[in-house]
Structure formats: structure tokens, C-alpha cells
Amino acid sequence: MSAAKRAPRVVAELGRPETPDETRTRLAENSRKYRSHKTVNNLVLSLLATLGTVLVLVLLVPRSDAPQNRDVDFQSVAAQVQTGITDPLLVPELPAGWTANAAQWRLGGSDKIPSWYIGLITAKTEFIGLTQALGANPSWLADELEDAPIAGTVTIAGITWDVYRNTAPEDDRGNFESALVTTAGDSTYLLVGTADDEELAVLAEVLAEQISSNNTEGQ
């Protein structure tokens, strides 16, 4: 005696057995949902793995809160530039803790005023730009100092300097808070930066002998 044929399963949502087409459709939809869910899971796992790798790299890479200042060999640059220039270029012996982060011979823009420039970082991590301009005129100086007025004079190691203060709003001053300016021979010397009067005076004293020598040669 053969086994009785099983009756088709009644689908609750339909209230009747599925047709063959409905069965194929349901199975296809279930397969699609499974693949979609698996893809999302894989994306999440991949993202977590990537974030983990980035975190490891961040932890491994050494970091420092100290300013990253290059120590530029301005003496060598000055030696290369000096040829053909009458006035001796300033080559200061920097105080302990001071470094140079730039050294350039600038040909000048429309004013054609050439200049020797050294960017300095002080012991207090402030900035002073040392500029020695050849044949500078009042309009060039006014541009360099953003039309700041003379605030007074100061004599340091026998050299008299004009003192300038930037009167612009604090947010607009950039790297120019104060400046010292003097002349000798054909050169105009500018010390411009964010350093306080004490550190400006330290640099002016270091430069005094070289500036005095230029003044003597120019007479």
C-alpha cells in the first residue's frame, strides 16, 4: 500500500497553498534579503577594521607640541650672496636657544630694493625678521612697516634705533608687533617681529659691532 500524498502547505498570509510561481518568488526574495544583509555586515566589519588601523597608526606616529623650526645655515647662504655686494651682509652669532628658519636674498619687487633676510626664532619661541636693505627709501620703509609711526628711539650698544609699534588691531598684526630700524652705509636694518623689547635688544646688541663697522666703512 503506497503512502498517502502530503497535502500542500497552507501559507497563513494567503489562506491557501502557494502556487509554484509564488514559491519561486518567495525563495528568490529570501535569498536577496540574505545577500543584502551579508553585504551590509561585511561593509561594517571592513569599516571597523579600517578605523582600527588608522587608530593604531595615530598611536604609533610620534607627535610633538613644540614648534617645528628648521635650523637654516644662513652663514653659508650669506657667503654665497656676498660676492658683488659692497656692504657686508649681517651674519649674527645667535644667542643660545635662538635658531634661523629662513635665509634669503631678495631682489625686490617694483621698488627694486634688494635685501638680505634672515628669519629668526628666539629663545622664547617668538619671531624676528632681520632685514638688511640696500638703498632703501622712505616709501619702501613705510611699506615694510605698514605705515606704522615712529614711537621713539633707543640706543643699544652705541647704535641708535628708531622704535616702531604696530597700531593695527591685534588680529591684523600678523608677525609685526614691534620693530627697530637703523641705517649704516648704504644699508637700512630692520628687526621686525613678535618678540618683546628685551629680545629685540638682545639681537640689536649682537648686531652692533657689524653695523658699526659698516658705518665706519661707509664714511
TrEMBL record:
Region feature (Disordered): 1-32
Domain of life (superkingdom): Bacteria
KW Membrane (keyword) present: yes
Listed Basic and acidic residues bias regions: 15-32
Ranges annotated as spanning the membrane: 40-61
InterPro entries according to UniProt: DUF4245
Pfam families, sorted: DUF4245
Presence of keyword Transmembrane helix: yes
Keywords on record: Membrane, Transmembrane, Transmembrane helix
Protein name stated in the entry: DUF4245 domain-containing protein
Organism listed in the record: Cryobacterium cheniae
